[in-house]
């Protein structure tokens, strides 16, 4: 009898199948690069690739082209395959691609793998000799392992009639060294050069009475050489654009008479209360040359790119009465639409008053003088003024903002508080760095500066505008950048104004960081790649009236190179160190910084090659050549001969040898106090390990403000109960993690008067689980006021099982400019709104909001997903979307409200499975602010019960139910 083991035969059978499958997978993996290259070439004729594997007639065979330099093929090293291009001696060029001239505006993205001495990397792009264009990169973007690095180069094809072709190649500049290149890739991204920019045609009609009045004002101004305006300077006119035809008020704008020369006059225009143009209620029209043509627009775009506020600015065709149209520039005035359109909450906008300055200068001109008396004191005696002051006086909230903003700017004017206490210092530093790169320092003159009071952080933000005058770029006495030797004590009334900032350690660090960042070639290339088509469109428009005009991009690159070179310190030169005195175990050395920017000493050591060093911390102001040396005394261990220092905000460490001679001069060191950690708890209630603060479980009574600086992060452990009393609050600039559990939640409750819980611009992610906030009020200190009991600003936050109830202020939860993911949020018994999100992106689901004095969910300028939420017993709206929000929702119940769902001011709300009960109005879409427009509300699978008025909309808005317009 023969017994067959069926399982054993099956096992052998499956082993054979597995082996075949494994071989197939390996084979496919080996062929994958070739398959990918074939796919790329078949899909994209603008893709070129050379891996140096095949040579024919001294040419490498590649994808979509042959590459010269095949004689350099070598099997010494290879990134992929068996071969690469070996460059040594006379063979300096490899993997050479001859490329016919691509379309203007196209972007060439090039990369190559490199092996060898890192000082010899060059990926280059050259043109025919007539054009004389050359681009080169040593920019390593990735270390690929095994000694290989990836180098990239990106070039935008310029509009150059001389250009006929490009040569793209790898290059070895040093014949004595050997380098290898492999896998050269070139991709061409063709831009659509069809114009997407269609300038508006705007008409202004002035009758003879208005024209005569303006002519008289113009003649007076031309005679004095200066324009003075007042309330009597306004005239009436008719403003027309498309279907808009309305009566406006206008006057001349500007201070100098360049705005009145020739036929192209400059105007300030005010729209009637019920109208706006391009969301602007008040704006200026002027000839483009008054703001140096397209460079002002580019300046605004760079500010916008870095989230710095600026006025609306662009170009139109403008027609006055029966004259032919001219190319003009429009510029928005300082109104609330500026912060709102840049995702900021409404806040007052202030400036230093300049009317007195120009009035005294006009009087001086009457007596034949070119300068007004007390000119050097103008900055410190100028009034502080708010735009739209009449509106502010009617609004208690704006009055308090104005008072605090006035106090902040006064402290700036007099140099009293630190810049960080007055400004959003990060944005202030960015603003100054951008003004330097763009040579737009006309914007930084004291009477040209404008500031927005951010009510969320209680500080001022700069508003960039007026970067240039008719004379073009403003360079202060040939300075490479504004911060150059700018923390001396200056008599010059402009310089004294700026030096206050550059003496500050934190501002100086941020300014240097952004100045270095924005002056990088890669940064500018990315910026101009992004906006090149828009720039070219505006240049073509400007050429209609200014045929010889050309935008000088190369000047910006040259300025950036100059800044990079000038701001780089030098070992043993930028800082000079002298022995002053020694004791038994330490020495005092006198240090002077002769570099263009402030520097920081961070350590000392015996020998340069020593790995160990002794920590030191000293901030060194600059000393301008020709000025009295400004010395700082520093204590170091005896025997150390080297001082280590750096330029804060910029990578790189430097050193200076300590000279064994006495310093030539001595000055006192100024110290600036910084914000410090405030933890009003006993030692057993918390622990600190490095930058991590942990609050233990148990009951903690807080009677004073708890403040966490940005350099820390704080964790509140499960079972902690924090009782806020006696006007206390919790304010953190670092990341906050609240880690309650279902069994042991965290509780933050009011024991008496309190000022809530706020997190402002934390560096890391915040995670809150199982936490209960009860009875909190808003932060209100030194005229700085927030609106939320729990406020989070510019953060990335996740919440799960968070409860907020019985708050005593406008919003229970207020998130601003934040990304969030919220699950199981419960809000009840609120004074006004439940959850208010301004300029946010996020998701909220499985949540209940009930018994609110106003809206349950209030979204402005935000993109939000809402899922499985119940909104019950509400004083106003269930969900309100405004200021161009985009909201999507599913499984939403609104039970008991004045309005169930509202979409206004260009917002789009899409709802699925919406259940509305017991409401006066169900669905509402309308325009609230004329600078926006109507709202759009789309609902699928609507259920409604006991609704007095199901639909309410205006003519500018749209409501759709199950894809049918109502």
What does this structure look like?
With 966 residues, the protein is α/β, with parallel strands linked by helices. Among the domains are: 47-189, Galactose-binding domain-like (Jelly Rolls), CATH 2.60.120; 201-564, no CATH class; 575-659, Immunoglobulin-like, CATH 2.60.40. 20% of the residues lie in helices and 40% in strands. It has a 25-stranded mixed beta sheet that branches. Strands 1, 5, 6, 8, 11, 12 and 14 form a seven-stranded antiparallel beta sheet that branches. The protein has a seven-stranded mixed barrel with strand order 15-16-17-18-19-22-21. Helix 3 packs across helix 13. The termini are far apart. The model is unreliable at 1-8, 28-43 and 666-674 (pLDDT under 50).
Contiguous runs where pLDDT drops below 50 for at least 5 residues: 1-8, 28-43, 666-674
| Beta-strand percentage range | 35-45%
**Rough outline:** globular
Overall structural class, as computed from helix and strand content, comes to alpha/beta
Instruction: Please give the share of residues in helix.
Output: 10-25%
- Largest beta sheet, briefly? 25 strands, mixed
Output the number of helix runs: 14
Oligomer: single chain
Q: Please, what is the average pLDDT?
A: 87
- CA radius of gyration is 33 Å
End-to-end CA span: 86 Å
Number of strands: 60
Key attributes of the depicted protein:
966 residues; alpha/beta; Jelly Rolls; Immunoglobulin-like; 25-stranded mixed sheet; disordered N terminus
Walk me through the topology.
Layout: H1 6-43, E1 47-50, E2 55-56, E3 59-61, E4 66-68, E5 73-74, E6 84-87, E7 93-100, E8 107-115, E9 123-127, E10 134-137, E11 140-145, E12 148-156, E13 165-171, E14 179-189, E15 201-205, H2 208-224, E16 235-241, E17 244-252, E18 267-270, E19 282-286, H3 294-305, E20 309-310, E21 313-320, E22 326-332, H4 337-341, E23 349-352, H5 355-366, H6 378-381, E24 384-386, H7 389-393, H8 396-414, H9 419-422, H10 425-437, E25 450-454, E26 459-464, H11 493-502, H12 505-518, H13 521-542, H14 553-567, E27 575-582, E28 586-593, E29 599-605, E30 614-620, E31 631-637, E32 642-646, E33 653-659, E34 686-689, E35 692-695, E36 698-702, E37 706-708, E38 713-717, E39 720-724, E40 728-732, E41 736-739, E42 746-750, E43 754-760, E44 766-774, E45 780-781, E46 784-785, E47 788-793, E48 796-805, E49 811-816, E50 819-830, E51 833-838, E52 841-852, E53 857-860, E54 863-874, E55 877-882, E56 886-904, E57 908-926, E58 936-953, E59 958-961, E60 964-965
Parallel strand pairs: 15-21, 20-26, 27-33, 35-38, 36-39, 37-40, 38-41, 39-42, 40-43, 41-44, 42-44, 43-47, 44-48, 47-49, 48-50, 49-51, 50-52, 51-53, 52-54, 53-55, 54-56, 55-56, 56-57, 57-58, 58-59
Antiparallel strand pairs: 1-14, 2-3, 3-4, 5-6, 6-14, 7-13, 8-12, 8-14, 9-10, 9-13, 11-12, 15-16, 16-17, 17-18, 18-19, 19-22, 21-22, 23-24, 23-25, 25-26, 27-28, 28-31, 29-30, 29-32, 32-33, 34-35, 45-46, 59-60
Helix pairs in contact: 3-13, 10-12, 12-14
